[in-house]
Amino acid sequence: MNWFEELLNNRALETALPQAIWDTIVMVGISGIATVIIGGVIGIILHLTRPGGLAPMRTLYAILSSIIVNITRSIPFAILMVALIPFTQWLVGTSIGPIAATVSLTIATAPFFARLVETALREVPTGTVDAAQVMGMSNGQIVTKVFLPEALPGLIAATTNTTVVLIGYSAMAGLIGAGGLGRLAYNYGYQRFDSQIMIVTIVVIVIGVQLIQWIGDKIVAAVDHR
């Protein structure tokens, strides 16, 4: 029996791989939505309250930028994930499983996404914002009718990059009981020395990342009219 025949007859591919893929989709999907919402709001506030922004607030900007965003981003995900176990247990009632992993995944990636959003909004031409102010738009109207539409390609690119990061983090979360492809690779590839499952897991992750990047690039190309 050759390598491919052994691979096709590997029971783990039928029993564990589909569930691992689904767990990864659940983790990335839920935490991705939460990250875009929470990180998007923080990113907009960072841009508005920064020095020279539409509503500069030095103290709030310092707290969000230096404490929440920078400190959270500086903590390695593996350490952050372990440190958040008590909080996760309190919030969702368990510290294992894909739903529990979405807590640490969201907290780890929301600050990262917020900084990308802030950067994307800074690329909106100042002249466009000035024109909106001359027309009498409020700050809320400028955000919804100027900043977000003008920065849409950058925001979609930021979402794509964050989703790719989430896939990598979800694999790490699998090592402490989150399930998913990371757990599958650890259980079969590391503990049972099943190189076939390890290779298949890597291929699935690579295909997933490539697919998300391709979709993201296509959407950016469609909405970018510059």
UniProtKB/TrEMBL annotation:
TM ranges: 20-48, 60-84, 90-113, 164-185, 197-216
Domain ABC transmembrane type-1: 21-216
Family: Belongs to the binding-protein-dependent transport system permease family.
Topological category with respect to the lipid bilayer: Multi-pass membrane protein
InterPro entries xrefs: AA_ABC_Transporter_Permease, MetI-like, MetI-like_sf
Signal sequence, start to end: none
Protein name: D-methionine transport system permease protein
Keywords carried by this UniProt record: Cell membrane, Membrane, Transmembrane, Transmembrane helix, Transport
Intracellular or extracellular location(s): Cell membrane
One Pfam family, short name: BPD_transp_1
Gene3D superfamilies the record matches: MetI-like
